[in-house]
Design goal:
By secondary structure, this protein is of the alpha+beta class. Helix content is 27%, strand content 17%. The protein has three helices and ten strands, in the order H-H-E-E-E-H-E-E-E-E-E-E-E. It has helices at 8-38, 55-86, 160-165, and strands at 102-105, 127-132, 148-152, 170-174, 186-189, 196-199, 206-208, 214-217, 229-232, 235-238. A four-stranded antiparallel sheet has the order 1-2-3-4. The chain has a four-stranded antiparallel sheet with strand order 5-6-7-8, with no helix packed on it. Strand 7 and strand 8 form a beta hairpin. Helix 1 packs antiparallel against helix 2 (55-86). The radius of gyration is 22 Å and the shape is globular.
Length: 252
């Protein structure tokens, strides 16, 4: 059978979808587990004094079990695919961003290319990036927790703490939602304001990048982790470790 070959842009899109579906199924699996653990547990008995379980309850229980098994199987398959992919990655590719790392596009036609300040449009949208070790040329893409959002905003709109981490209005944050660990993929007008914000489409959490990516809407329990940046000769690099916890409150 002839194997299909994808170009770089198509493969990047497929990888992004795989990461989002993996995170979403993991989050829903945890929710189903919580629902099942809180549901009443009934046992059968041959005694005529026992009350027969209503047909509606039995059907609901069967539906819960079917959904749970489906989510478990899907999550397991996606996890196996991720582990197989990770096994091919070079040493250092799963380490968190290090001071001095450069930043490269994580998706699109420019995937793998260095990100310069000129690549960032004023006012957004954000660019998705991976950190890259400039000494070994290893892209730290083996862990999805390393994906970064980079955006250029008006420095006058940034609060003092955010401005201290920014360079010429350029700021960076973790691209992983702090709720269930889904990727933050949208840049759109907030549900509670008139400005555009980062939005996670899994459960609608919104983050305000001008104020340290604090949560302004949705179930996320904390802001996105921030990544300090440096700028030299038009090229962006990492100036320090993530500030804040990276990843979701629920496994994802």
């Amino acid at each position: 059978m002839r194997a299909f070959a994808f170009n770089q842009s198509e493969q990047s899109h497929i990888d992004a979808l795989r990461r989002q579906f993996s995170a979403l199924f993991s989050a829903e699996f945890q929710r189903l587990l919580a629902c099942m653990s809180s549901a009443p547990f009934t046992t059968s008995s041959s005694s005529s004094e026992n009350v027969v379980e209503p047909e509606g309850d039995a059907h609901a229980e069967q539906t819960r079990r079917t959904l749970l098994l489906g989510a478990l199987a899907t999550t397991a398959c996606l996890g196996c695919a991720s582990q197989a992919h990770a096994g091919e990655e070079p040493p250092g590719s799963d380490e968190r961003p290090q001071k001095g790392d450069v930043l490269v596009f994580s998706e699109g036609d420019q995937e793998g290319k260095l990100i310069a300040a000129a690549d960032l449009p004023a006012g957004g949208p954000p660019v998705h990036a991976w950190p890259k070790d400039p000494k070994t040329s290893v892209v730290r893409s083996a862990s999805r927790l390393n994906e970064i959002l980079i955006i250029r905003l008006d420095p006058a709109e940034l609060d003092e703490q955010t401005k201290a981490r920014a360079v010429d209005g350029i700021i960076a944050y973790s691209a992983i939602c702090s709720h269930a660990g889904c990727p933050v993929t949208a840049w759109m007008k907030s549900d509670v304001g008139d400005k555009e914000v980062f939005k996670c489409m899994c459960h609608n959490s919104e983050y305000e990048p001008r104020a340290g990516a604090q949560v302004v809407f949705g179930p996320a329990p904390r802001r996105l982790a921030a990544l300090p940046l440096a700028l030299a000769d038009g090229s962006l690099s990492v100036a320090g470790n993530f500030i804040g916890k990276v990843g979701g409150a629920q496994p994802g």
